[in-house]
What does this fold into?
Amino acid sequence: MDDKTGPVSKRYIVSSCLAGLATRYDATAASCGRVVAALEQGVAIPFCPEQGGGLGTPRTPAEIVGGDGHDVLKGNARVITRNGEDVTEEFVQGARQMLILAQLTGASAAILKSRSPSCGAGTIYDGTFSGNMVEGDGVAAALLREAGLEIITEKEFKYD
Ligand code: SF4
It folds into this structure.
């Protein structure tokens, strides 16, 4: 329950893998000490949009082909696994679930794992599975940004 007599702390929705959960495609975490500290303070809510969209862990890695997450949301690009499977619907569904959780919990900002086709913010892989990067947002980052949340990568996030 919120303490109504004091200031309400800013809340963050965060990529689960940054909080130490083994949700990445290869069933590993990408723990970030500053995000874990925010979690311990009760101001961070972890969520993995790829799991939330129904994909398993471990899972085949995927990249956005034909644009970035904003293009995916408009129906102008797809998310394709390394094996050629189209997982666009799972990515979009997971992004929607993440936005719902952010809204339910009053999160005004998101701390997202850089480069991911879901969570990447500002830079993502180019869709060729070659390690090359392009400018753009992942699908969940795009939806959260379009909904007005402040988007921060784990590299930019500062927490005292
Ligand atoms: Fe982490 Fe986001 Fe990938 Fe899930 S989808 S493992 S939260 S980067």
Summary: The two ends are 23 Å apart (CA to CA). The chain has one domain: 12-153. The helical segments are 33-40, 49-52, 69-73, 88-105, 139-146. The chain has five helices and eight strands.
